[in-house]
Amino acid sequence: MVYPIEFEFKVMAFAPQFYVRDGDGREIAFVKQKLFKLKEDITVFENDSQQKESFRIKADRWLDWSAAYTFYNINGMESGKVRRKGAKSLWKATYEIFNKEDINDFKIEENNSFVKVMDALISEIPILGFLTGYVLNPKYNITDENGLEVAVFSKEPSFWGKKFLLRQIEEVSPEAEERIILSLMMMVLLERRRG
Prior knowledge:
Layout: E1 5-9, E2 17-21, E3 27-33, E4 41-45, E5 53-59, E6 68-73, E7 78-84, H1 88-91, E8 94-98, E9 104-110, H2 113-122, H3 128-135, E10 139-144, E11 149-156, E12 163-168, H4 174-191
Antiparallel strand pairs: 1-2, 1-12, 2-3, 3-4, 4-5, 5-6, 6-7, 7-8, 8-9, 9-10, 10-11, 11-12
């Protein structure tokens, strides 16, 4: 896979959906969230034609700060999961990534909690709230179980759309790379109301 990997939301879509493209501009996934579900149920397609599913991401419960979101491949086999750290994520977004053996091997953590707080405050102010998407852009560090930073995920400045870039710092196995990307897909949907 060629880095950086780009996540770009469809601006005029009723249901949250976004493209995932590699560094060469090739579409590697199209993500669509089902509306009006008590439990999250996300479909990851190969591309925006939505003809072929690649993965499903399903929540283990509804309306819980610490829900786990399990990844299923096209054969229905579990390939890992991501869990939001409930109370800790109020101040600084934090997610734990687990492999299929349920071992926590990666973590996603927001780099600067100040950005989250300022975004929440300023977005409520008329006119100024419009500018937060261009000025306040969260950045997330992805680390392994030893604390080694393997990637950085950051929102790019924009007024209308939402674009995120995943930059690789250290190589990881293809299975770990897949889990990290799926975890970021889920995190983007959960954190999408910001900036």
